[in-house]
């Protein structure tokens, strides 16, 4: 039999997996897998179980939000041999699942894994010792994702991010940074920046160019410098969400590697979880590093 490690976060997305767990296990067992099941107990638990058992597995499946997926892939990146990956989204936002066009119903997502074909995806390395699946970000609103409690996410879902984001609007502070990549250099006071491999960020698809390829070896980078007036901020928001004319405060480009240097420590977020405070950050794209099982993509 083929060995599977099934890791799930029992609290993600209003704890919806409770009503689907037997159905999911039945689908995997019926496909001939010998299943080792692990319910995460704390932060970092998913990465640890993957590091401990992953080398003996043909397939690792995770169910949870983007943070759980990040932990599983972070653990996989440390294995001698990388198993195939399966993903059953169960979080509040599920940005990367949207990019992969995964089924919303958990049973159908499990069926897509057992019937699917491997699809290689790029993985980001952060400062050489951390990884991210779809986003590394700093600045305005980024703290919302990791400061919003799981209970609040479960109660309010996507609205939780919006409510917490509004609270931080008046506290925007710029970060003076020098940014270097293969084709250019910028030095500005930035209020927000993100390095992504996704078509959806925070549930919004307008923030990223929809022609994104998840296995092309490059990231999409978006940087916003400090606006001078409230009207400038309004124009930035209009550009970001309403696709108006290019804005002088917004920089967009693609790159496979990028380097950030800041005057003081800057908090970073990796796939919705706190990534540490840094004055220097190196980000590199690992092209087609992990293969995920997908059904037919629309």
From TrEMBL:
Keywords: Kinase, Transferase
GO cellular component: plasma membrane
GO MF annotation list: ATP binding; ATP-dependent diacylglycerol kinase activity
All copies of domain DAGKc, residue ranges: 1-130
Gene Ontology BP annotations: phospholipid biosynthetic process
InterPro entries: ATP-NAD_kinase_N, Diacylglycerol/lipid_kinase, Diacylglycerol_kinase_cat_dom, Lipid_Phosphate_FormReg, NAD/diacylglycerol_kinase_sf
Signal peptide coordinates: none
SMART domains: DAGKc (SM00046)
PROSITE patterns linked: DAGK
Cofactor section: Mg(2+)
Family that this chain belongs to: Belongs to the diacylglycerol/lipid kinase family.
Protein name: YegS/Rv2252/BmrU family lipid kinase
